[in-house]
Design goal:
Elements: H1 2-50, E1 52-55, E2 83-84, E3 89-92, E4 95-97, E5 99-104, E6 119-129, E7 132-137, E8 146-149, E9 158-160, E10 165-170, E11 174-180, E12 183-194, E13 207-210, E14 213-221, E15 227-230, E16 234-243, E17 249-252, E18 255-257, E19 273-276, E20 279-284, E21 287-289, E22 296-299, E23 302-307, E24 310-312, E25 321-324, E26 327-332, E27 335-339, E28 343-346, E29 352-358, E30 361-366, E31 370-374, E32 385-399, E33 405-409, E34 414-425, E35 440-444, E36 458-469, E37 478-481, E38 489-499, E39 502-504, E40 512-514, E41 518-523
Parallel strand pairs: 6-12, 13-15, 14-16, 15-17, 16-18, 16-19, 17-20, 18-21, 19-22, 20-23, 21-24, 22-25, 23-26, 24-27, 25-28, 26-29, 27-30, 28-31, 29-32, 30-32, 31-33, 32-34, 33-35, 34-36, 35-37, 36-38, 37-40, 38-41
Antiparallel strand pairs: 1-6, 2-5, 3-4, 3-7, 5-6, 7-10, 8-11, 9-10, 11-12, 38-39
């Protein structure tokens, strides 16, 4: 009897031993799987602890945005002024970053009254060095899906549905946009800057310093060799002008806001950043919101640098960066969201030459993302020319209305030596509202709205090398059309075109319409 008990006990012990060995083995395997992830998390946490963050508190005088402030309405239908956002919280390494509510326009149809419906969206900004953890809390939103743009960073945020939060880390200063549930409404714009270096001497007589707080300064006129510094935490209701001056700078982290101005309605445009007939000007780091018309303009200027400028416009004719008859201008590391053309080159007087847009994020709610024209000889000059224009490393987050890439020679200018390189279109839902469906549109036209000269011009030597559309309409046609036998488009060469995963090797594959007023059009 005792022998049977011993045998039974031995079998039980053997089974228990096998079970323990099994779980021990599984534990080792699972632990092995978790170890790399745990180690990676520990490394990120260590980097976060070492990082440096500079936060800027907003003006205490700004009112909190109420539900009434957030409703869809025209600028005359509700309070249009910039607000303190209270329904969205942003934490950077556990500390709260001040959030503003600014006006945006999610409609895609022109309104002759100049009073389209407006909405609002949150923005925040800070400076950092290293790696930071960003948490966005939206208590009124049930989060099912989140997209963090630009997509090139491959950010995979962690969603906490109970807390209504999304958390992710970044280690590169840039502009980031958080969209919830495949919807652009109430997208959160996060402007994560480099930490400022080489600050100007604020005691210098050539430095105009605007500190934190809310300021009503209708018009700031810069003189030779002056620097305007708008500090983080400042909101300036006004505009900045520079005319016939040299070596002027605008820099800082603050906001230039136009929400206290009525919309221009075709009569009185108040341009937040206007640099005309200038030599060697510089604009860096500032944010321009709620302009009453277009935003950053330079006319007849030579030698300019526009860096890390952030723009959001929502009212009619809200063009982003417009360079007219300028030479040797560099635009780099900017964010431009507009309710009209985002990046624009035109001739209003002398010839244009040597313009570069590099590493710019674009979100175009109305009109075109990258536009040359229509006004190519507004000043009706002899031998008018636009040449050596480069768009490089451009990321188009959204393009809703008209073509992403467009050249419209509506006067008698020669438009030549235009290049587009490494263009990524994250979403091309072209043709919404009263828009047109083309992805690209290169044409010589006679426009009743925009043409100044009776004669037409030419377009020559356009290179598109690396143009990728990630998502978009089922059909994304393009067109290249000249005017007549004497006014043609000559030499358009397209390489490395990819549309929604399909590599385009022929004009037919790319749905191009090309007329007989063209010559030497290739794609490969």
């Amino acid at each position: 009897m005792s022998g049977n008990k011993n045998r039974v006990g031995g079998r039980i012990g053997f089974v228990i031993g096998c079970v323990l060995i099994y779980f021990f083995t599984v534990g080792i395997i699972l632990g092995g799987i978790k170890v790399p992830a745990t180690m990676a998390k520990m490394k990120v946490n260590a980097e976060i602890k070492k990082s440096k963050v500079v936060l800027y508190d907003g003006p205490k005088s700004l009112k909190d945005a109420t539900d009434a402030d957030l409703k869809f309405a025209t600028e005359e239908g509700r309070d249009f002024e910039i607000k303190h956002c209270v329904d969205t919280k942003v934490l950077v390494n556990g500390k709260e970053s001040y959030v503003y509510d600014t006006n945006v326009n999610n409609t895609h149809t022109w309104v002759d009254s100049y009073l389209p419906g407006q909405e609002r969206t949150p923005i925040t900004y800070f400076d950092f060095d290293g790696t930071v953890e960003i948490t966005v809390e939206v208590p009124k939103t049930d989060i099912n899906y989140v997209t963090v743009r630009p997509l090139k960073y491959g950010i995979k945020p962690q969603i906490n549905k109970k807390k209504h939060t999304v958390t992710f880390t970044v280690d590169t200063p840039d502009s980031y946009t958080v969209e919830f549930n495949n919807n652009v409404k109430r997208a959160v714009h996060i402007f994560a800057n480099e930490i400022e270096e080489n600050l100007p001497d604020f005691d210098s007589e050539d430095v105009l310093y605007i500190g934190p707080g809310e300021w009503n300064i209708e018009n700031i006129m810069l003189e030779d060799n002056q620097t305007l510094y708008i500090s983080g935490g400042a909101v300036v209701h006004g505009i900045v002008n520079a005319n016939f001056v040299k070596n002027v700078k605008v820099r800082g982290r603050g906001i230039i806001d136009g929400s206290t101005f009525n919309g221009w309605k075709g009569r009185m445009a108040k341009i937040p950043l206007k640099f005309d007939n200038c030599t060697n000007f510089s604009i860096e780091g500032v944010i321009a919101l709620n302009p009453n018309a277009w935003v950053l303009q330079s006319y007849d200027s030579i030698g300019g640098k526009i860096k890390n400028v952030k723009i959001i416009s929502s009212r009619p004719n809200g063009d982003g960066i417009t360079l007219q008859s300028c030479n040797n201008i560099q635009v780099k590391n900017c964010f431009v969201r507009t309710w009209d053309d985002s990046l624009v080159v035109k001739n209003y007087d002398v010839n244009t030459d040597g313009i570069t847009f590099d590493n710019v994020q674009v979100w175009t709610d109305l009109a075109q993302s990258m536009e040359i024209g229509y006004e190519t000889n507004k000043g009706n000059k002899e031998n008018s020319k636009i040449s050596n224009i480069r768009f490089e490393n451009i990321t188009v987050l959204h393009n809703f209305h008209k073509p992403v890439l467009s050249i419209h020679n509506a006067d008698n200018a020669l438009v030549k030596d235009i290049s587009y390189k490494n263009i990524v279109v994250e979403e091309a839902t072209v043709g919404k509202g009263d828009g047109t469906p083309e992805l690209m549109d290169i044409g010589i036209v006679n426009s009743g709205n925009w043409s100044t000269t009776m004669d037409r011009g030419q377009v020559e030597n356009v290179t598109i090398d690396g143009f990728k559309v990630l998502y978009g309409n089922d059909s994304l046609p393009s067109k290249i059309k000249g005017y007549d036998a004497e006014h043609i488009i000559k030499g358009v060469h397209i390489n490395n075109l990819e549309i929604k995963g399909k590599k385009i090797k022929s004009l037919e594959d790319g749905e191009f319409t090309v007329d007989d007023k063209t010559d030497d059009i290739t794609i490969k």
